[in-house]
Amino acid sequence: MAETGHHTLQPYHALPLTLNPLQCIVMSICGGMKVEYRVLKGRINSVGFQPDERLIPFLELAGFESAALIRTFNLRYDLISALVERWRPETYTFHLPCGECTITLEDIVLQLGLPIDGNAVTDVSLISRPARLCYDLLGRSLSEGKFATLRFSWLKANFEHLPSTGTELEVMQAARAYIMHLIGSVLMTDTHGSDVHLMYLPLLSDLHNTRSYSWGSAVLAILYRKLCRTTDPSVVDIGGCLILLQSWALYRMPFLMEHESRYREVIHDSDIPSND
């Protein structure tokens, strides 16, 4: 009988399992019988362009260098959807036959390199002059009126290409814009997938101080929240840092990599033969 308990899932060879790897994942997802599963969809999984090399020192200063250098890759929504079916909101863990496991702050550091110590990333309750804030920190504004989000299309159009004669101030402004784009499209995505909330921008005003916030904790908390939301069978999309969720699963359960070409068959067919 497989050992149970609440622990961080280690790479497969370290798990005290009696089940064959394929049996473990099949039983984890299907519970030993064939069922029809929804396949959830997300919106964005990359910024869409790499940062100018002049931004790198400022991204490093702010604690976002590793996350900013993540390369785009395809999300496997069958894998993500299967994991959601095993998520239990009352414990914030995945319930598998081999025990309970979950994504931790250790995984945040390992996969994303974000700070996990320091001040909490909290909402700014009121931004009374959003245009002024954007002019001060980005050098330009989306609008002169009231607004609460920045569109990714606007960030890309205004900050993807930095002039060769750009000053240090302009480079810092572009770095803030890239971090905002990264937060909204990769790290803390919602199901709209078209903009990022302005509440994060004040935390980027002093890039020396930005890394004093526990961005990793915020990313993990939002992912937990989105996973809990998707336990409702009527939900058809998912937000949060899906790159983290997928890379965690493939790192902690590396046997999944061996079956990429037939992954859907593996996780949905409870009659798949033993791999012995």
Automatic annotation (TrEMBL):
Residues 63-256 form the Aminotransferase-like plant mobile domain. GO terms for biological process: meristem maintenance. Pfam families: PMD. This is Aminotransferase-like plant mobile domain-containing protein. PANTHER family: PROTEIN MAIN-LIKE 2, PROTEIN MAINTENANCE OF MERISTEMS-LIKE. InterPro entries: AminoTfrase-like_pln_mobile (IPR019557), MAIN-like (IPR044824).
